Amino acid sequence: MTDAVIQTDKLTKYYRGQPAVEDLSMSVPQGSVFGFLGRNGSGKTTTIRLLLGLTAPTRGGSTLLGHDSQHLPPQLRAQIGYMPEGHPAYGWMKAREAERFHKSFYTHWNGDLFHAVLEHFRITPNTKAKHLSRGMRAGLCLALTLATEPKLLILDDPALGLDPVARHSFLESMVYVTREHNCTILFSSHLLSDVERVADRIAVLDHSVLRACCSVETFRQQVRQVVMRFDGEPPALPAVPGLLTSLRMGNELRLTLVNANGEVDQAMKQVGAASVETVPIGLEEAFLAYLDDRGERTSFFDHVGAKS
Amino acid sequence: MRAIIWKELRENVLWALIGMVVVSLAMVYALELESKQGQSLASNRFLMATMFLGPVLAAAIGFLQITFDARQGYWALLVHRPISRSRLFMGKVLAGLALYFAAMLLPFTASAIWSAMPGHIAGPFRWEVALPGLVDILTGVVYYFAGMIVARRAARWYGSRGLVLVTAIGCSGLVVGIPLLIGALIAIALAGALLFLAARGAFIHNGEYTPQPAPAKASLGLVQLVGIMLVGGMLAAFAGSLAVTRDFRYKNYAVLRDGRVVVQQQLNGNLVSIHDRDGTPLPQFDKPPIDTDELEKIKAPFAWLLLAPPEQFTGQYRRPATAMSLHTYRDRAVYWYFTSDTGRVEGYDTVSRRLIGSFGPSGFVTADQQPTDRFEGELANRWGSVIDGLFTMTSGVYRIDSLHRTVKPVFLPKPGEDVLAAAPFNSSQERRSKRTAIVSGETIHVLDHEDKPLMTFTPEYDAQIYSRLYLYLLDEPNGFGLWYEPLWRRDINVFTLPRYLVTYGSDGQRLAAEEIPAFVRDYRGPSIAEGMLGLVFPPGAAVVAASISTFTVQGRAEFSRMYENRASTASLVVSFLLSAVISLVINLRLARRNAMARSRRIMWATLGLLLGPSGVLLMLCMQTWPARLCCDGCGVARLVSRLNCEHCGAACAPPAPNGTEIFD
Amino acid sequence: MALRIKIQTGCDTPIYRQIVDQVHLAAATGTAKPGEAVPSIRGLAEQLVVNPNTVAKAYAELRNEGLIESQQGRGMTLCDRREVLTDSERMRRVRPLLSDLAKQAVMLGFNAQELSRMLKDECKALGQRPSKGA
Questions:
Q1: Which of A129, A303, B411, B617 is most buried by its number of CB atoms within 10 A?
Q2: Are residues A113 and A150 in the same domain?
Q3: Same structural domain for residues A98 and A19?
């Protein structure tokens, strides 16, 4: 992990007076597999579009492989593989024609790799893209992206709408591309198990603000779950810094905390719980807690029940 | 780039094909109807296909080419290719225009070839008739780029996207309005270049305005400005027309048989009063309704002689029919045309649509015979060359009887002299009306009913200005009255010039001359409609607009002559100035709100002053207006697009941490 | 018999920890013999479809614990098992598991004898000689 392949500096984008990305400063080290997480509309796709110069930032800036995102020279674009959200492909093109079309722009093209990926997704080269299933179309996009053997691979929600098998193939290919060269991958996803498998660093966007950018391990270590048992009804909780969610279940209070330190432990002791126990938490649960709305939570079905 | 061209051709060929089918149908329909009339590519019906369908097809191809690729994922798919955006754009443009031209030119060429083949058109065919259609097809290029801009430009105000189409329509207006081919080509080249630059800028910068380079911004600005002015002008004219009286009043002079000059007054096209020049109604017509038959009986018969300067009517490529001197005699089954190539009047059978024969000065020969002579010179003037079988060339006046296939010379000018006009008198009841008036050189000849010279006059007033002459036959005194009417000219305001009536006795002796004042003494004062126009076009633009097109301004003056009520000039000047100053202030405030650099503030303020409300609208629809937030440093609203507050220089506050940040 | 590693996502244990544990288990139960080759980092990453860095991290820990070693020309192999953990560390790791087991067993109505007999059988099934490590 040497220099940063992607570097953003206070990157901000407003759409009609609303921030889509706000003051995003982060860097993606070379050779890393970088998971980009966040709920729908949190600004992941906007960030990626800003990085690739597909839209201009309201303020701030970003560099890709050391070049300003807004003025990426064509030679540099050739080194960046980008798969836009939704696996777009020209419907009228046959897979073979799509290869010919895309190939014509690149000096480097690995035809064997292209056909290997097609075969993996069981796409016959004579099929038109519009007749492919969603997963196959994604495979075609992937084949077109990988065949250029990019230095930097940016995948915008590659798993969107894919069945488990296609998703698995995607992960396999992501692991594959890190084989040969020192390739950096940035991918956005909602699928936490995918992130757990392949990402070594993650960034989490929450309502257009970057809240976390760290290694997966750090993230896992920083999120903790604590179960507090009380003799009677659990009391109202004082404001705890770093509290993500709290869940009341009978005499139990289950807290998910982030960046918990001695101060927090102190605060919790004062509440007067009969027992305090730290329970292990999986990455997926940690993400859920992290991405969910902050504060005390009950199942939202409760509200439905209360009405009727 | 070849791959891009291939992709664009493949993706849009369907639209082009649909367009081609529609255009072909329209052309076939037009030719089907017009060919019977001896008309082909330059006929109005045929030009509808090129003038309307061409632009629609071009704009549609431009729009569709961009709009499909502008969808988020596809935009990325396209522009992320390692090729410069301008090459990408050029590839698109080449493919799109190739499709457009193919879709238009294939049916057009087919129509031209069909028309050129004998037996299809009941009239002569010359390749010049293809010119207006070709120019129209070329105009489509302007619409093509306009369509691209509409599809690509991100604008917060949707109307401002469509403005470029208004500009393109304005360009069409120029193309149709400018009589000279070169002028039309220049208009297309200018508008095309501007729209090309604007479309390219929008394409390269993802449709966003701020990152564009100055030339692209300036072109977009000009294009938008023209659109705003056209829309504003139309709205203002509409508002102005609501403000003025709806009654259409019109006054003109008439000469009676007894030599009196009376005034006819019309209201909304109906004759409402006839009175003498003092305002006293004629006794027999003192109350409406006026018996027009009675009136015609007391009006003097006249011959209308137009001494039009030839240069005003030459080079009108859009009317190749007149350029070719297409003149029609209706001889039941034969159409007659004068063809300047052969110098003969040719007849075409309307059934077989083939040449049956032609007239020369010495007579008629059938199509299979070789003609031996030709009418020398040119047609005396396009509108009055053929009246009641009177065929007027500069080299002589002939009487052609197409039914009996005979030609008789009526008048031959002296050597070195040209016939300018010839006309019969408009009343055929009386024997003495079967006279003919001819202007040759600087003399007016009157021939009797047997075409023998009766007498001559010499016009007394400048024929360059008074080039519309009416020769009246008067009863009292028994003789003639020569009325001098000025013809519209670019360089002189003819509406204020007086008319003259000079009377002659039956022996040609000059009896009297009378000066008759023009009805409207001063057309220069603005009407309310023009004043409203001033609200949209304050001083700078008004001057520019006026100097660009005297034609339009003069046309408007003639139009506004109909309206009697006018606003006072002073109040209009005030409204001009007021709107200019208000616009300046608004633009300055807007520029300050956007924290613009000094030079740009000055630029926008100047535009506000010169262009008035158009300048304000231009600024509003060009600029992006970033949101503003309250600054933490000084508490004043600041732009989100700047790293530092424009008021206090404080850096943007990062979003407040909520304690859940994880960074390593 | 080759080393067979499976991982699960979405559970409480990190992937690298799952790999470490499974190699430990294989070595302890004798499923994998000392000297046997361990899949390469790249190979295992592609087989499991996980980030190679994760595998590398697991292998680094295994190497630190002395469970695997790299040999010239042969990649990585399993070592003879050497105890590297202190007694107290081993105790610390096994205690929570024992306590869970005990709780569950009591809840299900087993007594201590039954539990210890079942524990012995389980160990036997894993190929563990009851005498060793006692």
A1: B617
A2: yes
A3: yes
| Residue A5 and residue A30 in contact, taking contact as beta carbons nearer than 8 Å | yes
Interacting residues of A111 by C-beta distance below 8 A, sequence separation 6+: A99, A103, A147
Give the residue on A whose Cα is nearest the Cα of B656.
A209
Chain A 15-54, residues with CB within 8 Å of chain B CB atoms:
16-19, 22-23, 45, 49, 52, 54
For the stretch A102-138, pLDDT in tens is: 999 999 999 999 999 999 889 999 999 999 998 899 9
What share of chain B has pLDDT > 70, as a percent? 82
Residue A21: domain span: 4-207
d(C-alpha B37, C-alpha B40), whole Å? 9
Chain A residue at shortest CA distance from C49 = A172
Q: Which ranges in B244-340 belong to alpha helices (H)? A: 292-298, 320-323
User: Rounded to a whole number, what is the distance in angstroms from the first to the last CA of chain A?
Assistant: 57
Say how many domains are in chain A. Answer: 2
- Asked if A197's CB is within 8 angstroms of C14's CB, the reply is no
Q: At what angle do helices B569-593 and B528-536 cross, to 10 degrees?
A: 20
> Among all residues of chain C, which has the CA nearest to that of A196?
C9
Average pLDDT of chain B, as a whole number: 82
* Measured distance CA(A263)–CA(A269) in Å, rounded: 10
- Which domain CATH number covers A9? 3.40.50.300
At residue A152, the pLDDT reads 93
Query: What is the structure's pLDDT at B528?
Result: 52
Residues C58 and C27 in one domain: yes
Token pair of A245, please? 């969610």
Same domain, A168 and A271: no
How many contacts does A have with C, using Cβ atoms within 8 A? 50
Say how far apart CA B409 and CA B399 lie, in whole Å.
6
Query: For position A292, which CATH number holds?
Result: 3.30.70
**Domain span at C59:** 15-78
| CATH architecture designation of domain B304-516 | Beta Barrel (2.40)
Specify whether C35 is located in the same domain as C62: yes
Residue A283: list chain B partners with CB under 8 A.
none
In this complex, do A89 and B77 lie within 8 Å of one another by their Cβ atoms? yes
Taking the CA of residue A199 and the nearest CA in chain C, the distance in Å comes to 6
Is the pLDDT score of C131 beyond 80?
A: no
Number of domains in chain C: 2
DSSP count for chain C of H helices, then E strands: 5, 3
What is the C-alpha separation between B473 and B450, in angstroms, rounded? 17
Structure confidence at residue A268 (pLDDT): 73
Pairwise CA distance, residues B42 & B51, whole Å: 11
**Which pLDDT score is estimated for B347?**
85
User: Hunting for tokens 């995948």 — which residue is that?
Assistant: A155
Residue B566 has pLDDT above 70, yes or no: no
- Regarding whether C74 and C25 lie in a shared domain, the answer is yes
**How close C106 gets to chain A, by Cα (Å)?**
21
Are both A28 and A149 inside the same structural domain?
yes
Residue C74 lies in a domain: yes
For residue A255, give the nearest of A230, A235, A237 by alpha carbon. A237
Distances from the Cα of B181 to the Cαs of B109, B187, B378, in angstroms?
20, 10, 22
A216 within a domain of the structure (yes/no): no
> Which pLDDT belongs to residue A285?
82
Shared domain check, A167 and A295: no
